[in-house]
């Protein structure tokens, strides 16, 4: 990533605040935040102005800035994925953000737009796809695969060789034993203990986690 380029954060809510903090901690220059909610325009997040919406972002040439996806997701990553796809189609690139307190092992691959927040641990051989989030103090053991725009929430723990599908959500404090497959769009509830595979689009809760239906 051309780290000398200034950044613009898309979104100005809670996840944007956490991502912005990571950007500032790593010494990035942040020009501002863009949010579709005009009531936020003119406010500040961690001292950085919320300057406008998508139209403001488009006043910058693609070659002159990089974007950071500050849209969060709790079970539904469609807004996050959609905004990234929209700007990528216009030629903008999304920065990969890694908080300086993160521990990352050897042979870890982070795709464009992946985000790893404060205190997280990612062990050797893991791969994070485009736009994936490993949130605060989450722990990802060896050779895991995290799909595009999947969200590993704060404090979640994945044992080795776990696969998390595109857009899936592993809730805060959940634990997933080794070798489990979590399908695309599935949602694992906070604090759950996942000991068997979870099918795509399903909601799984409890200890041990059981599929209780389709997430909506």
TrEMBL record:
The record's keywords, sorted A to Z, are: Repeat, Transferase
Spans traversing the lipid bilayer: none
Read off the CDD domains from this record: LbH_AT_putative
Which residues does substrate bind? Answer: 75
UniProt entry tagged with the keyword Hydrolase: no
InterPro entries reported in the protein's UniProt record? AcTrfase_PglD-like, Hexapep_transf_CS, PglD_N, Trans_hexapeptide_repeat, Trimer_LpxA-like_sf
Q: Which GO terms describe its molecular function?
A: transferase activity
A Pfam entry, by short name: PglD_N
Q: Which residues form the PglD N-terminal domain?
A: 7-73
Its domain of life reads Bacteria
Looking at the UniProt record, the site noted as Increases basicity of active site His sits at 143
Active site, per annotation = 142 (proton acceptor)
- Which residues does the record give as acetyl-CoA binding sites? 151
Similarity comment: family membership: Belongs to the transferase hexapeptide repeat family.
Q: What's the protein name?
A: Carbonic anhydrase
Query: What taxonomic lineage is listed for the species of origin?
Result: Bacteria, Pseudomonadati, Pseudomonadota, Alphaproteobacteria, Rhodospirillales
């Amino acid at each position: 990533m051309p780290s000398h380029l200034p950044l613009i954060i898309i979104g100005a809510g809670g996840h944007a605040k956490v991502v912005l903090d990571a950007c500032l901690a790593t010494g990035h220059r942040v020009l501002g935040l863009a949010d579709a909610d005009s009531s936020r325009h003119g406010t500040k997040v961690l001292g950085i102005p919320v300057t406008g919406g998508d139209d403001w972002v488009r006043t910058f040439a693609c070659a002159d800035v990089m974007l950071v996806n500050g849209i969060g997701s709790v079970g539904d990553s469609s807004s996050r994925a959609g905004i990234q796809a929209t700007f990528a189609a216009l030629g903008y690139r999304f920065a990969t953000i890694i908080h300086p307190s993160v521990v990352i092992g050897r042979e870890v691959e982070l795709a464009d737009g992946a985000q790893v927040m404060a205190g997280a641990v990612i062990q050797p051989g893991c791969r994070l796809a485009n736009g994936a989030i490993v949130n605060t103090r989450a722990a990802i053991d060896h050779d895991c695969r995290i799909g595009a725009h999947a969200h590993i929430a704060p404090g979640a723990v994945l044992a080795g060789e776990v696969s998390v599908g595109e857009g899936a959500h592993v809730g805060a404090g959940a634990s997933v034993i080794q070798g489990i497959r979590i399908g695309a769009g599935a949602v694992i509830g906070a604090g759950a203990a996942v000991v068997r595979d979870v099918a795509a689009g399903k909601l799984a809760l409890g200890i041990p986690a059981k599929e209780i239906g389709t997430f909506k």
